[in-house]
Amino acid sequence: MVLKGFWWKILCMALLSYTILAGFLGVVPRRFILNESIRNLYFHVPMWFGMIFLLLASSVASILYLKKGKNRHDRFASQAANTGIVFGILGLVTGMVWAKYTWGSYWSGDPKQNASAIGMLIYLAYFVLRGSLEDPQKKARISAVYNIFAFAMLIPLLFILPRLTDSLHPGNGGNPGFNSYDLDSNMRKVFYPAVVGWTLLGFWITDIRIRISKIEEALDYE
Amino acid sequence: MAHLLALLKKELLLEWRMRTALQGMLLYVVSTIFVCYLSFRLKTGAMGVPTWNALFWIILLFVATTAISKSFYQESANRQFYYYFLCNPEEIIFSKIIYNALVVSVLGLLCLAFYLLVMGNPIADLGLFVLNLVVGSVGFSSTLTLVSGITQKAGNSTTLMAILGFPIILPLLLMLIKVSRNAIDGLPWSDSQDELLVLGALNMVVLACSYILFPYLWRS
Q1: Which of A2, A111, A142, A169 is least surrounded by CB atoms within 10 angstroms?
Q2: Where would I find the H helices in chain B?
C-alpha cells in the first residue's frame, strides 16, 4: 500500500473535524438562491473529488495488475471501485437533497447529475462482471481490462456532457457559484482541507475493506 | 499486415458462406423498425424530429450490439486457439474491428434506407448524415468488439453485453445524435466540425485501448 503507517489517518480525522466545525459554524458569504445551502460545498463537492480519486486509483491498480499479476493490486482495484461507488451514491444523494431546495426538484437532468449516474452504471456493471466469473485469476484479469477501458471512456463523458446542455450547477450558465472569481477566500480555507479529508477517508475505508476481504479469503481457504 | 488481410478475408468468407446470420440481422433490422413504426402508429413523417433521430440511433445501437455480440463465439475455442497461435492478438482484434465496422456500416445504411421509407425523411443534408453514420458504425464496432471479447470470456450472456457496453458507448452515442441532428436541420458542416473531431478522437481512444488491452484479454 502506498499509504504506510497511521499518520494519514490522524490527518484525515483532524481535517474532517475541522471541516465539520468550520463548515457549520464558519462565516459564509450570502449569495442569491444559495444562501446557507452554500455549505454543501464542503460535503457534496468533496464526495465527487473522492469518487474520482478512488476510481483513478482503482484503474491505476488495474494497470499494475495487468503488468505484474500481483493479487493485491486486483484486490485494491475492486475495493477502491467499491468505495468509489459509495462516494458516488453519497454525492448523488447530497446533491439531490440540495437540488430539491435550490432548483426545485430532485432530478433536473443536469449534465453533472447524468454523468455521475452513468458512472454508477459503469461501476455497478463492473461488479456484475466480477460476479459472473468463477476462476479468480480470470476474474482479476478480465475485470481489470474492463476497468481500464471504462475509466478511459468515463473521462471524455465528463467533458462531453456539459457541452451538450447547460448546467444548473453553481458557477455554470450564469448561476452564482464558487468559481475562481467568486469562491470566497474564507470558503477556500475549508474547502481544500475538506477535499483532502474526505478523499483520505475514502482510502481509509478501502484499506479496511481490503483487510476484511483478506480475512474472508483466508477463512474460505480453511 | 498480411496476417490482418488474411484474417479479414477469412471473416468475410465465413460470413458469406453462412449467409443465414447476415440474413437474420437484416430481418432483425426490418422487423425492429416495423415494430417501432406500428407502435408509434404514425402517418409517414408525423413524428417529431428529435424522436425520429433518437429512435433511429437507439435502433442502430441495438442492431450493432446484436451483430457484434456474436463476433467471438462464431468459431470453436479450438480454432480460436489455432489463430492465436499463428497471429498476434493485435492483428486479431483489428481484423475483427474492421470486419464489424463493415458489417455495421452496411446494416446501418440498409437500416437508414428502410427507416426513411416507413418513417418519412426529414433529413436536409443526407451527405453529412451518411458520413456521421459511417463514423458512428466504426465507433460502435471498435467499442463493442472489445466488450464482446470481455463477455465471451465471461460466458457470453447478452445481458452482460448490454450492461457493459451501453454506459461506455454513451459519449459516442450522444455526439452522434448531436451531429445527425445538425444534418437533419441542414446546418453548415462547419457547425458540426467540433463534434466530428471529438468523434474521431473518441474512436482513437477506443482503438488505442483495444490495441493495448486485448492481448491481456486473450492470454486467459
Answers
A1: A2
A2: 2-17, 19-40, 49-69, 77-86, 89-119, 126-153, 158-185, 189-218
